[in-house]
Write a structure and sequence with these properties.
By secondary structure, the protein is of the alpha+beta class. Helix content is 15%, strand content 42%. The protein contains five helices and 22 strands. The strands form three sheets. Strands 1, 2, 3, 4, 5, 6, 7, 8, 9, 10, 11, 12 and 13 form a 13-stranded mixed beta sheet that branches. Strands 14-16-17-18-21-20-19 form a seven-stranded antiparallel beta sheet. It is globular.
C-alpha cells in the first residue's frame, strides 16, 4: 500500500541502515516503485462475504471517483507527503502522484500506462502495467481474505482529514502476515487511512490523507506535471512472462499466498533478473532471482534487513542470489528463501 515507493526513496538517499551495501536491493525496490510491480486484476462480481464486498467497494472508490489531496506516509520517525490527483474522463483514468519531500519524483498514470519521472537524471521510466497504490487496497478480488484474517468493524465513528469514516481491522489468523487497520469514508467508501500492524499489534507504518476533496471541483489542469520532459531519456524495460517451475525452481508460497506474476526483466547494468510476485489479496511478496556476480565477486549482504513493515531477506542458492522482499514478517521471507530449491533441468540428449 505504498511502502515500496517510500522505502525505495529512502534507500536511494542512504537513510536505511546498511544501504551502502545494498545496491542490488535498492535497485529492486526502485524498480518496484517506478515499475509498479503489483499486478493488475480484472474486476469481479461481489462476493457473498460482507467484508470482501466492503473491500471491493473501497477498491472501486479508488478507481472511479475524482479526488485530490495530500496523504502522508509515516514509518517510525520518517514522514513523507505525496500530492495525489485522480480524475475520470472520456479517456479513462488519469492520475498524478507528486512526492513532496526528499528527491523530486512524479508518477503520471493514464489507465495502464505509468511514467515515473526522475528529474535529477532527466529520466522517464515507462511501464505499461497497472499498479494500484493508496488509496487503492486490494491485490485481486479479495475473496480469500476471510480465510486468513478475522475482521472487526468499529462501532464508533472516526474522522480523518475532516471526514467521517468507519474503522475496519483485519487480524491475521497466523504469524506469516501482518494485520491492518483501515478507516473508510462513510460517504464515498474511499480509503482515508491505512495502518500496518506488527505481530504484537503495534503500528509499524501508516498512510493517511491530511487533506482531501472528492467529487466535483477537481480540474484536469491539476494533472499537469511540473516538469518539461520532451528532451528527457525514456527507459522502458520489457518484461517477459516465464515459468520458474519449468526453469527448475521450487519456491514455497506461505499459506494463503498465491502466484500472481512471473516475469524476467532487465535491471541495472543490464542484469537479467527473474521476479515472482505472491499475494494473499492484501500483502505482496516479490522474490528476485539473479546469477551471482562472478565478474566482481560481490554478493549482497546475506540475511535480513528491515524498515518498518518492509522486510528483505537474501541468500545464495548455488550460483544464484535470491532476494525476498515484502510487507510481511521477516520469518515469512526467511522461510521462502531457506526452503527454495533450484534443480537444473537436464537437457534431452
Amino acid at each position: 500500500m505504498g511502502t515500496a515507493v517510500h522505502l525505495a526513496a529512502a534507500l536511494s538517499e542512504g537513510r536505511v541502515p546498511r544501504a551502502a551495501a545494498m545496491g542490488r536491493i535498492s535497485g529492486f525496490l526502485m524498480a518496484a516503485a517506478c515499475a509498479l510491480a503489483q499486478p493488475a486484476w480484472a474486476e469481479t462480481s461481489p462476493a457473498a462475504d460482507p467484508i470482501v464486498t466492503l473491500l471491493q467497494k473501497v477498491q472501486t472508490a479508488a478507481r472511479e471517483n475524482d479526488y485530490s489531496g495530500v496523504f502522508t506516509y509515516q514509518q517510525g520517525s520518517v514522514m513523507q507527503s505525496t500530492r495525489v490527483v485522480h480524475v475520470i474522463d472520456g479517456t479513462g483514468e488519469r492520475e498524478l502522484l507528486d512526492m513532496l519531500d526528499g528527491p523530486a519524483r512524479e508518477f503520471v498514470r493514464h489507465n495502464d500506462t505509468v511514467q515515473c519521472l526522475i528529474p535529477e537524471k532527466k529520466l522517464v521510466i515507462l511501464q505499461r502495467r497497472r499498479g494500484d497504490r493508496f488509496p487503492g487496497l486490494l491485490l485481486g478480488d479479495g475473496k480469500e481474505i476471510p480465510a486468513h484474517y478475522e475482521a472487526r468493524v468499529g462501532k464508533d465513528p472516526n474522522r480523518v482529514a475532516g471526514r467521517e469514516c468507519t474503522m475496519l481491522e483485519l487480524v491475521p489468523k497466523d504469524k506469516v502476515r501482518y494485520g491492518f487497520r483501515f478507516c473508510i469514508d462513510t460517504a464515498s467508501n474511499l480509503l482515508l487511512k491505512a495502518q500496518t500492524l506488527g505481530l504484537h499489534h503495534q503500528v509499524v507504518d501508516q498512510v493517511s490523507f491530511t487533506s482531501l476533496l472528492i467529487g466535483p471541483g477537481i480540474s484536469a489542469d491539476q494533472l499537469a506535471s511540473r516538469w518539461k520532459t520532451q528532451d528527457w531519456r525514456v527507459l522502458e524495460s520489457p518484461m517477459v512472462s516465464i515459468d520458474l517451475k519449468k526453469m527448475g525452481w521450487r519456491i514455497p508460497a506461505p499459506a494463503g499466498f498465491q502466484t500472481v506474476t512471473q516475469v524476467s526483466r532487465l535491471m541495472k547494468a543490464d542484469r537479467q533478473v527473474n521476479q515472482l510476485v505472491l499475494s494473499d489479496g492484501l500483502s505482496a511478496i516479490s522474490v528476485f532471482i539473479e546469477p551471482m556476480d562472478r565478474a566482481h565477486k560481490i554478493a549482497p549482504p546475506k540475511g535480513a534487513v528491515h524498515k518498518g513493515a518492509m522486510n528483505i531477506f537474501g541468500t545464495r542458492i548455488g550460483d544464484h542470489w535470491l532476494t525476498a522482499i515484502g510487507e510481511v514478517p521477516v520469518d515469512t521471507l526467511r522461510d521462502i528463501a531457506q526452503h527454495a530449491e533450484y534443480v537444473p533441468l537436464i537437457a534431452p540428449r
